[in-house]
Amino acid sequence: KSIFCSVSPTVKASCIRMHAIQVDSVQRWMEDLRHMTEVECMCVLQSKPIGVDEDAPGELIVSGTGAVGEHVTRDNLQTLLKRALVVSTELGKMFQRLEKGRWQRVHSTAVRVNCHVRSLIQEYSTARNAPPEMQKYEKSLLEKCMELNIITERCLHTEDEYFLKSMKEAIHEILTDVSDSFSHMIDMALANEIQILIHQIEDSDNVFAISTAISNLLSLTQDGPQLCSIIAKEGAVVALLKICRQDCFSTLYAHALRTVASICCVEEGISQLEKVDGILCLADILTDGACAEATRAEAAAVMAQITSPHHTSTQHLASFLESMQDIVTALINLCESASCGEVFLLASAALANITFFDSMACEILLQLNAVHILLQACRDRQRVDTPYSKDQVVTILANLSVLEQCTADVLEEKGIEHLLVLLNEKPSSSSPSESAACERVQQKAAVTLARLSRDPLVAQTAIQLKAVPRLIELCRSPAERNNSDSVLVACLAALRRLAAECPDSIGPTDHQQLIKPRLVDSFLLCSNMEESFV
Length: 534
Prior knowledge:
Layout lengths: L8 H37 L21 H34 L2 H25 L4 H23 L6 H43 L3 H15 L3 H9 L2 H8 L9 H11 L3 H9 L2 H10 L5 H14 L10 H6 L1 H14 L3 H17 L1 H9 L2 H9 L8 H14 L5 H7 L2 H9 L8 H21 L3 H9 L2 H10 L8 H17 L6 H8 L3 H9 L7
Helix pairs in contact: 1-3, 2-3, 2-5, 2-6, 3-4, 4-5, 5-6, 5-8, 6-9, 7-10, 8-9, 9-12, 11-12, 11-14, 12-15, 14-15, 14-16, 15-16, 15-18, 18-21, 20-21, 21-24, 23-24, 24-26
């Protein structure tokens, strides 16, 4: 029988309604629980060690520079980064939900943020003694998170549009403060962990311990330029170069230099390198024949990084110019003796960057027979086996071709034939980066050909080798140049240079469309062509 058989219809309906409400509440609680259980438990339980001797609390956590301490440092860093990502994601969701006025979601997200932040702070405080300044941020952040909780909860119990609108602005302001405070706190926590790693590098005489600390730093540099800036500001570059100046740590040179190269993706890293005469240290390593090839390759990688055209600051180049001759000589020698493609790529990338900012480097390279060395390397698949390496080679040739004396070297080494090979460069996979590298190879090969064709002998050689049909094909067929506008412009310029030297080499139709009009008109014509036109 039904349990409601002796109850009035009104009471029965009321009980059914209450039962439905309870079910809905339980379901809602279960949904919220899925998001909040873990962090709530962590807030309470993480500070309660299980099975730890009361006489030695935290002994495993605060180990010094031994293996356990190094693993704890790495784990702390990983935990910090993961937790920071979780909180940042939740804060981003909260901003979006606030804009949409989804108050229930706003409040539930505020609760989760509060739990995650408390859990993070509790966990970090258990592992480390936070610096006083960081403790102030922690206290302020917790207060703001609680304020955010309270104010978002108030918004759940009203439908007053005016009140909600005013609260929306207040919540947005608090949320911005929470985001800023959280970022500052995480930066200070990361800086604290990075300092511990740097102290391990500076104070330890154990090769394994130093290597582990360097590995942890290198891993951190992969998490973006903001973290690289913190690492640089804490003095990592100084500590790593100090390692590279001690013979007893020669086995760590390559590892340390790779980390320096990663840190120098930001201006702060380059500035630190300059302050400790890092360029002189790099020059010493590059010119030391006793150094392992891997070490010299990593030094070349640092050179490539600090001379990258992407950097806005060029103050560090002043000290670089003092060692220009030695550095360029060492790099071209490394290109010649490279045992594999990676070593050649690093050395040639450094040379390519160097040739951009000083013509003296180009003159030195020509004196060192660089054209011969580079073109010989291109014929050796063990050294030049990817479009990325070819990109570096053709960049150097393009910059060398500005100088008149380069022409004789290119002709002697049958360089025009190789430029035509590079004009046919195509990606071997669907990788966007490889396609972009092939475009750069085609563009720079065309630029080099145009510059060298100032010399009538070069122009005639290029025409005899059927350069014109390939350049026309690249202009008229978007697929051949991967729809690249930069390749199109370079090929049009090369065609016009060849036509100026040998007008009869271009057919009437091609001359009418590709040579006679203004460059911009020919460009527009070719860039709007369908592939079926060819």
